[in-house]
Amino acid sequence: MLDDLNSEDRLRLMKFICSFAWADLHIQDSERHFVRSMVARLGLSEEEAQQVESWLELPPKAEELDPQEIPLSHRQLFVDAARAMVMADGEVERGELENLALFDMLVRG
């Protein structure tokens, strides 16, 4: 299913994934590893990979994260990727679960 994403949607996915990595205000090594493995799986360009790295240094701005901009056909993929990000460090906090539930609700409309 990742192969079905165009370049814009691949970057959009990574922006959401990085925002979930920042949910507890700290990026764990396991979360960095998850993000970087997704960059490789998506086959992002060097420029796109650098953009993702910048989101690991400073979180994406909230106003740049509109779940309604996610194409309908990819919404489940985005939710699944966000869930995987939340679980990447092996520690799921209540706030992360709440953010994930809210994201799921917003994506499904």
How would you characterize the overall build of this protein?
There is one protein chain. The protein is mainly alpha-helical. The chain has helices spanning 7-21, 29-42, 46-57, 75-87, 94-108. Helix 4 packs antiparallel against helix 5. It is globular. The two termini are 21 Å apart.
Structural class, from secondary structure content?
mainly alpha
* Anisotropy-based shape: globular
Distance between the termini: 21 Å
Number of strands: 0
Q: State the helical fraction.
A: 55-70%
Give me the number of helical elements: 5
Radius of gyration: 13 Å
Strand content: under 5%
Question: Main sheet, how many strands, which sense, barrel?
Answer: none
Query: Quick check: average pLDDT?
Result: 94
Note poorly predicted spans. none
Give the SSE order as H and E letters: HHHHH
Topology:
Blueprint: H1 7-21, H2 29-42, H3 46-57, H4 75-87, H5 94-108
How would you summarize what this structure contains?
The protein has 109 residues and is mainly α.
